[in-house]
Amino acid sequence: MTVALPPAPQFGAPIPQAPAPEVLRFLATRRSTSAVTLAEPAPSADELDILLRLAARVPDHGKLAPWRFIVLEGPAKAAFAARLEALALSRGDLTDAAKLGKLKIPPLCVAVIASPREAPIPAWEQQLSAGAACATLLYAAQAMGYGANWITDWYAYDPEANAILGLTGEEKVAGFVLMGTPREPPLERERPDVAAHVSRWRDVG
């Protein structure tokens, strides 16, 4: 789809706030797409630039940008998956090797890396910002008309897999956001009873 976004606001410019009921309608029926149903076409290079720009606008206490994006596509993504498969098979772990289908099939993947900075802001808050980047990237891809899925799996946590991806220091994988065109529409899943997860604090002191 053709996307026309306003230019990025200049630093310090006032940003008008207005109701956006279309966003609420989108969120009311938003559904992740099964990774193994994602096929070509994926977002184009220009569309991906837009998605990453939007993902970088997440809440970020301290303005640290404590995350970075690794784009995996085409032969490079296939080579990454092949190295992960070789790693799993070298350990005799056929289950982990089989789990790589979710990564292999979709045409595009963006690894969102939590990359904490030395700052007074707690690392937990910086990791939450990286999680928000995952969610925004997921939602933006779906709002653009593509299917998307946010996964982790074993290779998000395995130190050797992280080294293959190029993580350093205290970096962690916040998520792999997979994108493409769904071959079939996702089905609604069971949703929680929201009321059972809500309470209101009262001062009883």
Could you characterize what this model shows?
- With 205 residues, the chain is α+β, with helices and mostly antiparallel strands.
- The protein has a single domain (33-183), classed as NADH Oxidase, CATH 3.40.109.10.
- It has helices at 21-29, 45-55, 74-90, 94-98, 101-104, 123-143, 159-165, and strands spanning 38-39, 67-73, 108-114, 147-151, 172-182.
- Strands 1, 2, 3, 4 and 5 form a five-stranded antiparallel beta sheet that branches.
- The mean pLDDT is 96.
CATH level-1 class? Alpha Beta
The secondary-structure element order is HEHEHHHEHEHE
Let me know the largest β-sheet: 5 strands, antiparallel
How many domain regions?
A: 1
Question: Mind telling me the C-alpha Rg?
Answer: 19 Å
Low-confidence stretches: none
Q: What would CATH call the homologous superfamily?
A: NADH Oxidase
What is the CATH architecture assignment?
A: 3-Layer(aba) Sandwich
Strand content: 15-25%
Instruction: Assign a percent range to the helix content.
Output: 25-40%
Form type: globular
| Structural class by SSE content | alpha+beta
Mean pLDDT: 96
- Distance between the ends: 56 Å
Q: How many helices does DSSP assign? A: 7
Strand element count: 5
CATH level-3 fold name: NADH Oxidase
In short:
The chain is an alpha+beta fold and 205 residues long. 36% of the residues lie in helices and 16% in strands. It is globular.
Task: Considering the chains and any ligands shown, give keywords for the structure.
alpha+beta, NADH Oxidase, 7 helices, 36% helix, globular
